[in-house]
Specification:
Secreted protein; 8 helices; 23% strand
Amino acid sequence: MDDTLLLLTVPAAALIVGLAAGWAVRSAAARRKLTRERDFFGLPAGSECVLVTHRDSASAHWSIPRHDALALLGLAAVVENCGAHPEVAPHDTGLQGFGARTEFCVGDPTAHRRLASHLTSLLPGVTVQPGDELGLGRGTFVIGGSTYRMEPGALEYVLLARLTAGEGGRPVFLAAGQRPVTHRAAVRHLVRNRTRLARRYGAEGQFCLLLKVVNSQAYGPDVVELVADVTKAATAPAEVRGHRAAA
């Protein structure tokens, strides 16, 4: 009887130990993943961040374009998962400088004041053309001598960047696109590929990626292609670019 009980007890104990060990390993892996995610986004538990968007020009009241609102919802899920606290602010509201808290800046740089300022300060190698009197060429990107002009509904571009500057060291994430659907596409790319991006660029690394949204008229923000990592050209000071062009 004792031998039978022993034969039953030993496997049961081994099973319990194995389950406990497996749970501990999975829990440790989940904690490491969450820590890496918090480091990448600059969002320690209990920290604050700000999501900056522009107003919908078609509305008499402050409202957010649909694609931009959906992009912010995707970012809000990341913020909540990190245990941080978000604030949504319009682009033309006076905000503090960057670096004190993580900032997600989403919109069209020809209409989004905060985003335009960030491009000037942090990505001097990027020029966004305002277009002519009829609006032709509006939003065209010029990066390192290359021009990226959109074909509405067929071919559109967006910049996705993670940049660090200012006191505090918290990153600024930019989704600067030619149309609202591209902003949403950039945010989805960031959220879906955050682990790979964190692994490639590190918790303190900077990057600026040029993405292409293909046939948004049919597929919305779903078909996105990486055109190039333009970090070097986008962050090059204006005088350096001018010297190279002259050479």
